[in-house]
Amino acid sequence: MRVFQMQRISAIALLIFLTIHMIVVHYPPFHINFDNILVRLQNPVWKAIDIAFLFFVLIHALTGAYVVITDFERAFDYRKALAWIAVVIGVVAFIYGSMTVWAFQPPA
Amino acid sequence: MTNSDAITHDVIIVGAGLAGSWAAMIAAEQGVRDVAVLSKLHPLRSHSGAAQGGIAAALNNVRPVAGTGPRGPLEQIPEGEEPVDSPELHMFDTIKGSDWLGDQDAIEILVNDAIDVIYQYEHMGCVFSRTPDGRIAQRRFGGHSAPRANFAADWTGHVLLHTIHEQALKHGVKFYSEWYVMDVIIEDNIVRGVVAINILTGEVHLLRAKAVMFATGGYGRAFKITSNAFANTGDGVAIAYDAGAPLMDMEFVQFHPTGLYRHGILMSEACRGEGGYLLNKDGERFMEKYAPDKMELAPRDLVSRSEQREIDEGRGVMEDGQAIWLDLRHLGREKIMERLPQVRELAIDFAGVDPIEEPVPIQPTAHYSMGGIPTDNNGQVIADAQGTPIVGFYAAGEVACVSVHGANRLGTNSLLEASVFGRRAGYAIAEFIKNGAKLHPVTGDPAERNRRMIQEMLDNPGKELVEDIAQELKATMTANCGIFRDDEKLKRALKDVRELQERFKHARVMDKSRRFNTDLLAALETKHLLTFSEVIVTGALNRTESRGAHARTDYPKRDDENWLKHTLARKGEDGRPELSYKDVTIFWDRFPPQERKY
Amino acid sequence: MYKTTGFISFFLRRLTGVALVIYLFLHILVIGSVNAGPEAFNARLNAVQTPIFKLAEIALLAAVVYHALDGIRLLIVHYFDVTEYRKSMFYAVIVVATILVIAGGVPIFLFMLETAS
Amino acid sequence: MANNNRRTVTVRIQRFNPDADAKPHMQEYQVELVQGMTVLDALHEIKTHQDGGVTFRRSCRHAICGSCAMNINGRNTLACKTPLKNEIDKHGRVTIRPLPYLPIIKDLVVDRTTFWEEYLRVKPWLIPPDDIPEKEFRMSPEEVHALNNAETCIMCGACYSSCAVIGLNKKYIGPHALLKAFMRVLDPRDAAPAERLAEVSGADGVYRCHTIFNCIDACPKGLNPTQAIETLRKLAQKRQKYEQARRERQKHLNEPIP
Ligand SMILES: Cc1cc2nc3c(=O)[nH]c(=O)nc-3n(C[C@H](O)[C@H](O)[C@H](O)COP(=O)(O)OP(=O)(O)OC[C@H]3O[C@@H](n4cnc5c(N)ncnc54)[C@H](O)[C@@H]3O)c2cc1C
Ligand code: HEM
Ligand code: SF4
Ligand code: F3S
Ligand code: FES
């Protein structure tokens, strides 16, 4: 089933991205603000990495949430609708998140 | 009134073991649309599933390695080489095993149909163990002169039962799971239906049908030490007997030589088939004395008697000296793990002994009921020695007595019997229905009658516990109507049984509720035990000879002059069994009676 | 309820998974404030970098680490025949997760103490 | 002094008769612990001598019929193969409950309706190929061996009712039925593996299993439904190819294994 595969593949991708993310973002200097993020995100490769990370984490999170919800017998019959809701949330969050990454531009 | 309230089916089969499921499957396959099976257990819980060792048929897949003797290793027969086995040989072994009390026409059918039935099982998905070239594997079994026990490790009955149940489902058979049949309606020698309790609700229903078949299994529960399941209370024989049908050869009860000490749980004969030894307290293989040729693989009645003799003469093991060692250690870990894995687990779970390391304490255990409801070769129940049919009433499997086992059954022949005669009954029933069988009316209100009977049992404030009565019955049956019998013991047993029947009138059912009342069922089952035990003892008392499993110390010889005949018992006016006798079918030119020596 | 190591691992995996999803969306919203300009962003970020939030971050770390390791365990089970080692694998996950969380948590904790004082 | 072979022990049993009780309650009984006694023996002693109302299923008493699966000291297992002494030694007493997650019919008797429905749904019977040989289909000992993990399943339900997914959602096929499907899919005689794989690889099939492993821990026959499910998942990925291979194999079903 696709959901299952998507979840495994994104999990493997996350293993890489999340490790990077945790190390670069949450460790020294610990305190972050616009400026020190900007330093990194001026490099387009970093922008790409962050957007890919966003992509996979959304897939993983939404398939995960979908699985958790459809595990309940009551929700099981509404799988179709739930899947569409997940897709919509995913697309919106992806666009919004990408805009965010994009927004780290040196102040004009 | 009641006739229209009743549930109706074309065919009602009581019991969902191998015999019942085969009949149901075949009838459905033959185009009978409305086949219902009632079972007090879920079908897959039937006792057929407990069978371990194998199912006989002369397939000729393996042979003993030349020059290694009767206990040596086996090998597959290379393509195109001489067979070592034949239905004829199987037939002879069975007749000899039966101590010439088996009906030879029925045995001939059994051994010939055997081959076809095994292949049919295989084609239906049964997972048999295999030879290296992919044929069904075979092993030796007691009393069989060739390796013809086809097996699936040591869970043969389990895979057969699951296979046939699946097929019955596939053919659309309707199962009433956990319905307890308590009465069969026979009027004017025509069967009309059954009365059953839906265990879940406690409701009593009348179920009418054009044909009724009993496949309710054996009656080993009348004994204290038994390999049989709790469910093997011989309901079928007792119900049929109460309804006026006769019972045949009830005195023949097989004791298996290797029941786990105290539990009675079976250590399959495959243990000996694979080469296990029986040892007494002094470490002797005592079978040398009793059956120098076949040793441990002599037939069951003989081995059990030999064990009992060792025990009685003070050469038993364990604190109370009531056991014998079953020694498998020399087979080695690998063989035990591959061929006898379940047996090993049983020994570990129930006796705390690992057969790879230690010998297992065992004792004879009541195992198989040769007697039962007499039928012709198509499962049609007969009412008397002349073979008058009870129209529409069929029986097969352990509850029936065709008789292929006569005075003693050979291991692996009973799964075969249940399959072969279950299948034949299926065809016969389909025939019967297609030839325009009618639904016959029922007089009165049998459901109400049974409801009232149950209510009386529930309302009885009696002071006796059902279990105490049952235990006393089992104790006396084991002590006085067990492996060795004599006039004095049997008279004592008869007196005890009758007293217990009286006492049962004051038995108290503790659970008064309707829903899933297994306490009530236990009481009904005990009533059944009391009913047919009287028949067993009466038959045994009258049969003043020793034959097969019926061993009388006061009449130690077989007596063909007077006793080469089946016992028929029918419930008399006074409620006591009335005995008559029926001839044994013997092909005098082919298999005349001989002395039975191993 | 049927409690075994299997059940506990499943429960924790699910708990951490759901917690992480909730966190993820909050996270996206917080970081998203940059769309309103660097000032808004810095203000929002300052608000979520108080000591309390740093403590929460350790919890987050624990959740991620456990969830990821357990995820790896499952991936291993999918592709290799190792169900026999199911219990020891679970204990290994717990041990490794604990070590990682301590290793990762201490610097954050020290930093928290620093900012708090 | 109580000597070690004979002592009185406490057995707690969950009682519930939906016709009479608002909710389940625990009841304590004392039984004398005899050497070699199983939990089923203890239940029997209680039922026949102390309280006939205590209700449970049983038949074979040697772990082959699957009737007596119940929850003993928190673990699903067969009462007939659980030595009473072991439980007492480990936990000090025995607490017996019905199989979890299933509707209670009475006391320890549960309603296995959904369990059997799923069993039926995977078509437990063999779907044979078109040509049936005169004698047996040839199957190698290895092919038979591969089925061992499923063929001894006694359909007791211990696995099913230990699985947390079943606790949430009875539409899940469940470990027992998936194990049965596995057995048929692997059987060289079965002619429809692709169809079977399609049936079990829906949202309620193998992908609903979250690899919780309770089924393995619970199975009294030592079977491994999890591994069977993993195998089915893999085969489902390439079911057309697998079906192809099966057709090839079936051309030789009538020939000796080399
Ligand atoms: C431990 C053991 C091992 C054995 N091993 C072998 C072996 O290796 N080889 C061999 O050939 N034979 C063996 N046998 C014998 C063989 O298993 C049985 O003879 C055979 O299975 C009987 O099958 P059956 O269909 O007649 O009855 P069973 O399988 O006993 O089925 C009886 C059915 O009747 C139902 N029933 C009973 N009473 C009622 C009622 N009142 N109302 C509704 N339903 C009812 C039960 O629910 C059950 O479904 C063994 C027997 C035992 C005890
Ligand atoms: C390295 C990182 C990660 C790995 C290896 C990983 C792995 C996995 C795996 C294998 C599953 C499947 C569990 C199952 O089928 O039962 C899973 C489920 C899930 N994951 Fe992750 N994951 C990771 C990170 C994340 C993150 C960052 C989130 C949240 C945003 C997340 C949320 C979820 C959720 C909600 C589930 C469903 C929970 C469940 O089914 O029990 N995971 N994860
Ligand atoms: S797999 Fe094991 S636990 Fe599950 S039903 Fe079969 S025997 Fe019982
Ligand atoms: S317990 Fe349930 S979730 Fe899967 S591994 Fe077993 S079926
Ligand atoms: S009584 Fe048959 S499995 Fe326990």
Summarize the structure in short.
The complex is a heterotetramer of chains A (108), B (598), C (117) and D (258). With 598 residues, chain B is α/β, with parallel strands linked by helices.
Regions of chain B with pLDDT < 50 over 5+ consecutive residues? Answer: none
**Could you estimate the helical fraction of the residues of chain D in percent?**
25-40%
Major β-sheet of chain B, in short? 8 strands, mixed
The N- to C-terminal Cα distance of chain D equals 68 Å
The best one-word shape of chain B is globular
Helical content of chain B stands at 25-40%
In round numbers, the mean pLDDT of chain B is 95
CATH topology of the largest domain in chain D: Fumarate Reductase Iron-sulfur Protein, Chain B, domain 2
> How many domains make up the 3D coordinates of chain D?
2
Largest sheet: number of strands, sense, barrel closure of chain D: 5 strands, mixed
Spatial strand sequence of the major β-sheet of chain D: 2-1-5-3-4
**Hetero compounds:** flavin-adenine dinucleotide, protoporphyrin IX containing FE, iron/sulfur cluster, FE3-S4 cluster, FE2/S2 (inorganic) cluster
Termini gap of chain B: 61 Å
Average pLDDT of chain D, to the nearest integer?
94
Q: What is the name of the CATH superfamily of the largest domain in chain D?
A: Alpha-helical ferredoxin
Shape, per Cα inertia axes of chain D: elongated
Estimate the strand proportion of chain D: 5-15%
CATH-level-2 architecture of the largest domain in chain D: Orthogonal Bundle
- Strand tally of chain D: 7
What does this structure look like?
The complex is a heterotetramer of chains A (108), B (598), C (117) and D (258). Chain A is an all-alpha fold and 108 residues long. Chain A has helices at 2-26, 34-41, 44-70, 73-76, 79-103. The mean pLDDT of chain A is 89. With 598 residues, chain B is an alpha/beta fold. Helix content of chain B is 35%, strand content 20%. Helices cover 84% and strands 0% of the residues of chain C. Chain C is elongated. Chain D folds into 2 domains: 2-110, Beta-grasp domain (Ubiquitin-like (UB roll), Roll), CATH 3.10.20.30; 113-250, Fumarate Reductase Iron-sulfur Protein, Chain B, domain 2, CATH 1.10.1060.10. In chain D, the strands form 2 sheets. Chain D has a 5-stranded mixed sheet. The longest helix of chain D has 13 residues, at 225-237. The model of chain D has no long low-confidence stretch (mean pLDDT 94). Chains B and D meet through helix 4, helix 5, helix 11 and helix 16 of B and helix 1 and helix 4 of D. The complex binds flavin-adenine dinucleotide, protoporphyrin IX containing FE (HEM), iron/sulfur cluster, FE3-S4 cluster (F3S) and FE2/S2 (inorganic) cluster. Protoporphyrin IX containing FE sits between chains C (13-14, 17-18, 20-21, 24, 67-68, 71-72, 74-75) and A (7, 11, 14-15, 18, 57, 60-61, 64-65, 67-68).
